[in-house]
Design goal:
homotrimer, 474 residues, alpha/beta, TIM Barrel, three-stranded parallel sheet, 11 strands, globular
Chain lengths: 474, 474, 474
């Protein structure tokens, strides 16, 4: 990738954007939301595995592009739920390289190319011709200590890395990292999903795991909440500053204790229906808000995604192989019960994410521009892209105001793509500020402070780590 | 603010835009929709008050930015409904200046900075350091005749200023202005809201005020309509050429006289529910259209806003402190009953506004591009901004056609921000036209005529003041 | 029109865009979806008629702009359903030219101006002054063999032209073309609408026509499907490679044979209601998919349009005079039944179109970026414009990937506008690629191959004519 990549084509804007970008180049990466496996760091001798294990199989962005263009999942080494597939990683890599044109102009293409170049010094374009040589280089490097997870963590200049962990999880790897003498800031995030969506397969097992890991007998809603609160304490002791939750809709509704307990009891007996499940989620959003107002953990909420849309593929391969599709979503009415109770609470912080960009100017920016408790998360998933970031900055900032946003997070499973993703954000932030500066909407002082905020200041404050640095200055 | 502010950063586009902008610089301001208090002009000795009264307390754009960043309303001198708050305006001004970074890249920041510079010759950036000196300058200027409302009105080169007034209002200030020998064009606008939304507190008092000011005993729907029609005549005698109405949805529905009368009678007895209220609004939209088709007043309709969203804040402080949040809205089906009856009527004009930008290309531009009676109002409220105007021009014009739009209106409570707001619109209009000219979509003649239309021609015709100037020429 | 029209105003981008555009200038026009009348080509002596017949009366884009600005349809020579109107084409042309400013910055204005210049060598801007002379030139040229449909077809360098034809149609003109010694590739498209929407007036006559032309007695759902399948065979024998269908919503639902047969039987008796009609459409979408999976015809589906919105105009003048208005639409949930059954089918291809741009990033690009069977059609109707194309490319490509789109189609009734429309698409495609190249997102090789794909490669593959050329190379 070219060193001036992604900067505005206009020479004046490019000059300003480069200046702003370079002024921020020593700011460490702050990654408060993502899906990197903590096991990579708990063992000093861990390695990333082969190129396919690193770049293809775990990356549902890559998988979906190949699958949607007619390449069967089995050919990519993806196992079905019932049978683990045998695969030749070199052959999968060749298939991938032979189809690399499918990634033209996509963020996946950009991240892959940037990672290969900046992390592994591979400058050749992936293609049928370069498949073999790039595979060999990667295999060699990935086995060496220079490319171990811990070495790359240090090389990447990461100030903070948050993982995402089930509330039921024992956090063994996080405990091991903290007990080690490798002093890096890797923290868990408290994720509710598997414990709250009780129609998901495996819910009852998760409840049992929660009970065991919280030393709580979960027999009703009260003890369920108690178990969650104990686990929140455990997570906080390991550094967690935020929770996370995802749902199909943003509906919130306060049920009476009697109502919610009755639903929960039915769930324990496996006797709930879709309506019970939806109302329980709506109520739990208020419980999460209450707990956050009490213990100060920032509450993250991602709404508007239909999970496992491709039913036959889900039945064969399981979740997370690319069949999650966004839905139109409504926030203005749906959040009233929650915001009525906690929207003005001084100790509460709710970070909202959306995949429905029509809500940026219509609902989210006006809401965040009014309620003290709200922050808007960065463009997420399908919208974490060159144009997605530009639309976000242009549509959100004027109305919400920069200071009601939460900076960037990479949301990635791919550890090696972290620098590439933050870099793309920073370059687009620099382009946005350059446009404002060139049009005299802001001045130099504004631009530099805003650049700093976009790189790290906003995220530190949103995720309650502002103490590290005072807020509004570089 | 820089004299080349807001123009495109591209040197060629900037040159063209500047040329178009300067060719329009003597065109007077035409402000057919806003919320300036007519009392400012009825008394020749009126003054704007202190800087906080002028720039902060009445401006809900400013208030929401400060409040959403954690500053309590009381600290801004905002009174609760029950207790008028004492405040030290200098202290509020200092607090505001100390937080002025919150307005970076927002339209409020742009308007404030432009107004301070262009009206009050204050070129320093607001900050903790400049709070004291800027306060002193403002206090001094605001007390002098050179900065009185009437003097500024003349200085601003305003051809027309329309206020917004309850249909029940006696219009004492407008009468006084017209009776005076200060010959400026300040006219009222006939607003239905407080008389039609009968679940709002104070509805019955408004009905009594309507009855009194129209000399009509309002005992049923028939006499209610009669009273409104009499008041429309009164408004028109004072120069009004338009009505205004706001609702949550755009639903229209024609009820039988019997149905609507029954609802209205229940309302008089305080026995209506939400469904009655909604159906009454849906029917009243047809009544408004009928009256406009008869008397020729342009009908303005703003839909898709949830009022007083922050319930506890509303209960403590009352309406209009920033808790109004947009909703997704549907026009295509909702307007059928109204458009079926009046959409092709040669004497009817309906000006539609939206806060849901997804309706621009999907519904509003196609509707306005078909029905002779429709015009599209400019980007409004949250979308009256640098990017909001750009999106509007790019999304509406190709499909509706320029000549089905209504020019600009500032919709402001802040009289001193009027030149800044119209100036932003004109600069963005010039940028848009420069882009079309540079890409050879239009030629010089087109560009100049379109610039004139965007500045004043379209608005004059939409608001029935086309007689002042012939339509399609400079 | 200027030879550099529509290219980016930035000099660097313009240079790159021109280079890419010119590299593609010999690529023939591939027009797989449109509404040109095949009768123009079945008779070697056919002519286009007078300028009003060619440019105004059949073009509902032009009609709506004039009508929405207050010009009665009768004055444009449009006949009511009951009475054919007499009109003086010269007077209509003069009225049109006198109002040509209404088309400023609209795609219709662009297409008209380009067609007049490039096809008829008319360089003067249309206006009151030039109405007479342009009319005379057009009348003279339109009567000559040099401007006959067949001559222009050859001059336009058209590789393929698909018309749109009712499934019930006998295709007499297509048969005549194929039987002639004029060897050009003009093919029909199998359109279901008039046979599936059984509440439309004339449905039963269409069923009778279908029965006659398929030699099938249609007495129940089974024979209805049989008749359609026979007609699909007939269409395919005449070269058809695709079907087409339009509906208000995207809802799909599989009914039992018993259910759907009962509805169909009621329809034959004229005893169906709106709910029957909607469920029938929802089921028929699955039938269409099944047939396409079997016979390999690409299935096109346009959803989200409210037909004949202006009821009184429709009653007086009939369909297609501009009263069709888009609706908000939902794809994610609605398409589940269809995609569950056919979304992963290797022989099925569904090309989706939308007028609701909010679905681009939210639903359509994610769906197409996952399901192998899906392709996204180009920006359509109101969105086939300079900005509409730009939004499409910026919002769809990153997430769906270029290779899941279907290239361009002009969807036009106006044969002479075909080169103008494809030219606009190509120039905007070149601008888009230039932006990516200048920001180093893609390289030269990528850009040239993507340009070729956008001009013809994607469309050939989407419409099953890939055999003509191998897919991914120029």
């Amino acid at each position: 990738m070219h060193p001036e990549r992604f900067f505005s084509p206009d020479p004046n804007l490019r000059l300003i954007a480069k200046r702003l970008y370079h002024s921020a180049k020593n700011i460490p990466i702050f990654a408060p939301h993502g899906h990197v496996d903590p096991a990579l760091f708990s063992d000093p001798n861990a390695r990333f595995g082969n190129p396919v294990d690193l770049f293809i199989r775990p990356d549902h962005y890559v998988i979906r592009t190949l699958y949607s263009n007619g390449i069967p999942l089995q050919k990519l080494g993806i196992s079905t739920k019932d049978n683990s597939v045998e695969y030749d990683p070199r052959k999968v890599w060749e298939l991938f390289c032979d189809n690399f044109h499918l990634f033209r102009a996509t963020p996946s293409g950009v991240w892959l190319t940037t990672s290969l170049r900046d992390v592994f010094d591979i400058k050749k374009k992936l293609s049928k011709q370069t498949a073999g040589s790039t595979y060999d280089i990667l295999v060699e490097k990935l086995s060496s200590i220079e490319f171990s997870p811990r070495t790359l963590f240090e090389k990447f200049n990461i100030e903070l890395l948050a993982t995402t962990d089930s509330a039921a999880d024992f956090l063994a790897h996080h405990q091991k990292i903290q007990a080690s003498n490798w002093k890096r800031n890797i923290i868990p995030t408290f994720r509710f999903d598997t414990l709250v969506h009780f129609l998901n397969p495996g819910w009852i097992e998760e409840i049992k795991r929660l009970a065991a890991n919280s030393n709580t007998e979960i027999s009703n809603f009260h003890t369920f909440i108690q178990a969650l609160e104990r686990r929140r304490d455990d997570f906080r002791r390991l550094g967690a500053t935020a929770t996370d939750f995802s749902a199909e809709s943003a509906l919130t509704e306060e049920l009476s204790h009697q109502q919610v307990d009755a639903i929960f009891q039915r769930a324990l007996k496996g006797q709930v229906d879709q309506q019970d499940a939806s109302r329980f989620v709506a109520h739990m959003l208020l419980e999460m808000a209450r707990m956050s107002a009490e213990d100060g953990m920032a509450m993250q909420f991602h709404a508007g995604i239909y999970r496992n849309h491709n039913i036959s593929l889900y039945q064969e391969f399981g979740a997370d192989i690319g069949g999650d599709i966004p839905l139109a979503i409504e926030f203005t009415r749906s959040l009233i019960p929650l915001l009525q109770k906690f929207g003005n609470h001084p100790n509460f912080k709710l970070i909202l994410f959306t995949l429905d960009e029509s809500t940026y100017t219509r609902e989210l920016a006006p809401l965040a521009g009014h309620y003290p408790a709200l922050r808007l998360g960065p463009p997420w998933w399908f919208n974490d892209s060159l144009n997605g970031i530009e639309r976000y900055l242009n549509q959100v900032m004027e109305s919400a105001g920069l200071y009601k946003t939460a900076g960037f997070n990479d949301d990635t499973r791919g550890f090696c793509s972290i620098p590439a993703r933050h870099d793309l954000w920073r370059r687009q932030a620099a382009n946005w500020l350059a446009g404002l500066l060139a049009r005299h909407v802001i001045d130099e002082e504004d631009a530099h402070q805003m650049m700093y905020e976009l790189c790290i200041g906003l995220a530190r404050r949103a995720y309650n780590m502002e103490s590290k640095q005072n807020g509004n200055a570089e």
